Amino acid sequence: xxxxxxxxxxxxxxxxxxxxxxxxxxxxxxxxxxxxxxxxxxxxxxxxxxxxxxxxxxxxxxxxxxxxxxxxxxxxxxxxxxxxxxxxxxxxxxxxxxxxxxxxxxxxxxxxxxxxxxxxxxxxxxxxxxxxxxxxxxxxxxxxxxxxxxxxxxxxxxxxxxxxxxxxxxxxxxxxxxxxxxxxxxxxxxxxxxxxxxxxxxxxxxxxxxxxxxxxxxxxxxxxxxxxxxxxxxxxxxxxxxxxxxxxxxxxxxxxxxxxxxxxxxxxxxxxxxxxxxxxxxxxxxxxxxxxxxxxxxxxxxxxxxxxxxxxxxxxx
Length: 317
What we know:
Layout: H1 10-23, E1 31-33, H2 38-41, H3 54-57, E2 62-64, H4 76-82, E3 88-90, E4 111-113, E5 120-122, E6 135-137, E7 142-145, E8 163-165, E9 186-188, E10 211-213, E11 234-236, E12 257-259, H5 270-276, E13 285-286, E14 293-295, H6 300-316
Parallel strand pairs: 1-2, 2-3, 3-4, 4-6, 5-7, 6-8, 8-9, 9-10, 10-11, 11-12, 12-14
Antiparallel strand pairs: 13-14
């Protein structure tokens, strides 16, 4: 859906909001889309942190500051106090290297976008203070670890988290404490430096997980516990170094799509072939179970099957 950009300057938007609310209280602004205003923000959020704007910010539930070239969030405590109802904030595509502690005081936040920033090292501690958080998107940063330095465990943290996206970072180790995120529906870890996954990530505690994205890493195996996810529909594990397919994969009745292309799989188990069939030598697709799109392109096992087919054909001839 195309959304027409508001061409008014920030002071004009707030002035219009005041005029509208005086005429009709039901017209209070609940959403502000201030994306791509490089010149107005000039690297900081100061233009938004004006005392006269506070009455309008009190009713705000959604704020977008996407791609405003904001490099620091000084005076963020003003927003944390002025926006008690804020549920969503988009700070994506800004050259931010860190987050301010007052962000953790915005207890009403349910969704944060921080994609395409420059945040490095550990996940900022302030994010772990947001108990109502349901969606955290931090793709394409320089994150090296999911654990904050002061955080020994994820137990009790992010009890409502449903969407966790950390694609395109520099993460090497996935902590087993991720089993504590029992409400996850989407877990995206594509294009990191992950070499292994602990048992249980994903696993039976992720009873609502539907999408698991772990492609373009350095995995040599998927944990057997992945087969214990009762609602998992889509697995993206292509472009790794996986050698073996989890034995329980063939028993996953919820599965609709599984991409294991570009790995090192050399053998398919009996139960796998019984359900999904052997991969086509041309495109690597297993089509026996038409309810599941199973992809094995660019694996040694496909080449091996092709060689076996050619050998059988020669014997018949």
